[in-house]
Write a structure and sequence with these properties.
Blueprint (H helix, E strand, L loop, with lengths): L16 E7 L3 E8 L2 E8 L2 H13 L6 E5 L6 H9 L3 E5 L1 H10 L7 H15 L9 H27 L4 H30 L2 H10 L7 H11 L8 H8 L3 E2 L2 E2 L3 E2 L3 E2 L5 H5 L2 H10 L1 H12 L4 H22 L9
Parallel strand pairs: 1-4, 4-5
Antiparallel strand pairs: 1-2, 2-3, 6-9, 7-8
Helix pairs in contact: 5-6, 5-8, 9-13, 11-12, 11-13, 12-13
């Protein structure tokens, strides 16, 4: 077996330790990087796996490791929170940054084990900024909102199946749909109660209700996913987080693609702003004006919808940051 050994970065001492994590639905691979050498291990992506990881790090005298993982949706959230609560410095980085670092290393092969090592070396070389989880009440709200999202998806799937069902299967589907509707109703009540029980969340909800085009479903997503607006330096950073920032590809005169919306990030988060943007294009004065201007300029319909989504997010950012209700006349 070939022993892996890498040069230590100039700004890294032999005492620095980084842990790269490549995470998937059922397992995660880690790479412990110290003094230019890597140690690898795989764990189940559950609470038992988290505890085994903590023990493994303690056995390797690595309880002060700087942990780094890619922002890969929901699969890594519980692990990141566990490590943060356990006292580790945690960084969650855009996968594009790690991909760029891999290209600088001229890496061609790709496995979970190699990806974990790559992330560990990236962490040692670039020292990404530390991450911290949302407040406990926001995490609890996030779990409720995502549960409601899952229940609605299950209900729609069962309704689709009901269209072709007959006999006993039809009866089973109707019973399950009734059960899901009951769960949906109870979960909505729990969400509203949770928001009412926390004055900060309740105040932000009232501010968001002042924005034409923003309804209860979208407000719940906003409050549960990014109600702490201070984590974003500006509205463009928030748009990039939601992944509605435009992506332009141009190279000389041979490649000139029309700007498209970025497809990175959590699809459900981006999806939550599509219908509100369509509503805002009819009822929100600021976005009506944008719609008219872009239409007159001959822009395609979907490009106008994308611009409306970004404009709506800029309005949300302004309302939450300044803590004032929406005002169409505000310049």
């Amino acid at each position: 077996m070939v022993s892996l050994h890498y040069e230590v970065s100039a700004n890294m001492t032999t005492e620095d330790i980084t842990l790269g994590i490549d995470i998937s639905k059922k397992k995660f691979d880690v790479a412990l990087f110290r003094s230019g050498k890597l140690k690898h291990k795989s764990f189940h992506n559950d609470k038992h796996g988290f505890e085994y990881l903590a023990k493994w790090l303690a056995d390797h005298q690595a309880t002060k490791a700087h942990v780094c993982m890619e922002s890969s949706g929901v699969y890594g959230e519980d692990l990141a929170e566990f490590l943060y609560d356990s006292g580790f410095q945690v960084s969650i980085v855009n996968p594009a940054r790690v991909k760029g670092y891999a290209q600088s290393e001229l890496k061609r092969s790709k496995t979970d084990k190699q990806d974990a090592g790559l992330i560990a070396r990236f962490c040692a070389a670039h020292r990404p900024e530390p991450w911290q989880p949302q407040a406990k009440e926001i995490r609890q709200l996030r779990d409720l909102v995502r549960r409601l999202e899952a229940l609605n998806d299950m209900r729609q799937q069962e309704l689709n199946r009901l269209e072709a069902a007959v006999g006993i299967v039809e009866e089973q589907l109707n019973r399950h749909i009734s059960y899901l509707e009951k769960e949906i109703k109870e979960t909505k009540a729990l969400i509203n109660q949770h928001i009412d029980n926390h004055p900060t969340l309740k105040n932000k909800k009232q501010l968001l209700e002042s924005i034409p085009g923003i309804g209860e479903v979208t407000i719940n997503v906003i409050l549960s996913e990014f109600s702490d607006i201070s984590q974003f330096r500006n509205a463009k950073a928030l748009a990039a987080f939601i992944c509605v920032a435009p992506r332009v590809r141009q190279s000389g005169t041979s490649l000139r693609e029309r700007g498209m919306m970025s497809k990175m990030g959590r699809r459900a988060l981006r999806k939550a702003f599509f219908m509100p943007a369509l509503v805002a294009m009819r009822y929100n004065p600021s976005i009506i004006e944008l719609n008219q201007r872009l239409t007159e300029a001959g822009k395609p319909k979907m490009a106008i919808v994308g611009a409306s989504m970004r404009k709506l997010i800029h309005i949300i950012y302004g309302v939450l940051k300044n803590e004032v209700p929406y005002d169409a006349n505000y310049a």
